[in-house]
Specification:
Elements (H helix, E strand, L loop, with lengths): L30 E7 L8 E6 L4 E6 L2 E10 L2 E5 L6 E4 L6 E2 L2 E3 L2
Length: 105
């Protein structure tokens, strides 16, 4: 007896990564959020915020970088650095937006 199975080429639907929870003040894996970019050919790049599982971050704003630690409480992300006030940003409920920055795939 010969049984033929259909081989579809449809990929499983993609779902956004789970947002951080109140259980952990950090992300489970590195996340890069990207926003406004400078025009092609000009100095600078894009505004990005990278959150790492170890509680550190990098906020790259066009051509300057700030590093420090972060924490997440509810939907508020606090970016802390030496000798400056914390920067607070709002994380969307699904974790795909950090203020106006969008999670990169």
């Amino acid at each position: 007896m010969l049984v033929a199975a259909g081989c579809g080429s449809s990929a499983p639907p993609t779902t956004p990564p789970s947002p951080p929870t109140a259980v952990s003040p950090h992300v489970a894996k590195e996340r890069v959020y990207e926003g406004e970019c400078m025009p092609a050919g000009s100095r600078g790049g894009c505004h990005t915020v990278t959150l790492r599982p170890d509680g550190t971050y990098r906020n790259f704003l066009f051509d300057a970088a700030m590093d420090g630690t972060y924490s997440i409480a509810g939907n508020v992300v606090s970016l802390n650095g030496p000798d400056r006030e914390p920067i607070t940003m709002t994380l969307s409920a699904d974790g795909t937006k950090l203020d106006a920055l969008t999670l990169k795939p």
